Amino acid sequence: MIKLGLIGFPLGHSFSKNYYLSKFENENITDVDYDLYSLENINQFPNLFLNDNRFKGFNVTIPYKQTVIDFIDDLSVEAKQIGAVNCITIQHIGDKVLLKGYNTDAFGFETSLVPLLTPQHDRALVLGNGGAAKAVLYTFDKLGIPYTIVSRSKTNGNLTYEQLNRDIISSHPIIVNCTPVGTAPNIEEAPQIPYEYITNRHLLYDLIYNPAETLFLKKGKLQSAITKNGHDMLILQAEKNWQIWKDNF
């Protein structure tokens, strides 16, 4: 039995396990299993696969997308540029165990975003500067869309939420929430931006998929903005992960 899994902490609600197990059942894949591995410390990670050659890959989620790189032998081009990994392949070659890291979040984000873009969507406001934002920034660089980062503290030229005003909101018709604010069960929370300046020219994208419509998106929709949640991004990256793992089996 081939083993795949998700590492992170804490692992409460997991899209990945349900998605892959349903996929395996629907496609009659009987020789692969997927499970959750909640690790309080990333240093516990090697204990999973070093003595069990059934492991062929992992997904990585918060808070280990960056720290897991210390355990990886090789990085794909996009993972190296982004500096974050959400997909790992494992090869057992004799006594050696080789790990390669990928970032499929960028693929998922780009593929789900591009169909929504129009010529007016020429600048982006990125809320948050953590690991989740890295794939988003990489994608905007790739698409040639300038962006401004908003974070709670002012560093490296980032804006703070308190600095946001009509001019900034008006000149950034794409706004992406890369923070966990608004994730279930905290569905009454939303990033503190001046929503009254959002118009029908805006596209609001939330990486959160649970709930399906966050307060951030609801507030944007009230201002006639186009809105998009993170569900399609999640499906796209999950399928990309599966392709990568299958090629490694």
From TrEMBL:
GO molecular function, one term: NADP binding
Shikimate dehydrogenase substrate binding N-terminal domain sequence ranges: 6-88
InterPro entries assigned: Aminoacid_DH-like_N_sf, NAD(P)-bd_dom_sf, Shikimate_DH-bd_N, Shikimate_DH_fam
SUPFAM superfamilies: Aminoacid dehydrogenase-like, N-terminal domain, NAD(P)-binding Rossmann-fold domains
Annotated Pfam families: Shikimate_dh_N
Record keyword ATP-binding present: no
Top-level taxon in the UniProt lineage: Bacteria
One BP annotation, GO: shikimate metabolic process
Signal peptide: none
This protein's pathway: Metabolic intermediate biosynthesis; chorismate biosynthesis; chorismate from D-erythrose 4-phosphate and phosphoenolpyruvate: step 4/7
Gene3D superfamilies: Leucine Dehydrogenase, chain A, domain 1, NAD(P)-binding Rossmann-like Domain
Alphabetical UniProt keywords: Amino-acid biosynthesis, Aromatic amino acid biosynthesis, Oxidoreductase
Entry's Gene Ontology cellular component terms: cytosol
Entry protein name: Shikimate dehydrogenase
